[in-house]
Write a structure and sequence with these properties.
Shape: extended
Strand content: under 5%
Number of helices: 3
Largest sheet: none
Helix content: 40-55%
Length: 69
């Protein structure tokens, strides 16, 4: 929501804000976390996060290195 200059809200309003902005994404969000909370399978949550981060270079930025100087 922040990258699209939208109000984030909190608690139960997060879903309402997401739905008002992008209903398809809100439904994907709910499905992903519903599966995670019911089964512990985090695959859908990871996929959702990857899709959100993709336009910004993905999980890691070019040149990222952990532990190197």
């Amino acid at each position: 929501m922040r990258t699209n200059r939208q109000w984030i809200d909190a608690s139960k309003w997060v879903y309402r804000s997401l739905k008002d902005y992008d209903e398809d994404f809100a439904n994907q969000f709910v499905r992903a976390f519903d599966i995670f909370y019911k089964t512990g399978n985090k695959g859908q949550v990871i996929e959702l996060a990857d899709n959100v981060l993709q336009p910004f270079g993905g999980k890691l930025f070019d040149g990222f290195s952990l532990g190197k100087r």
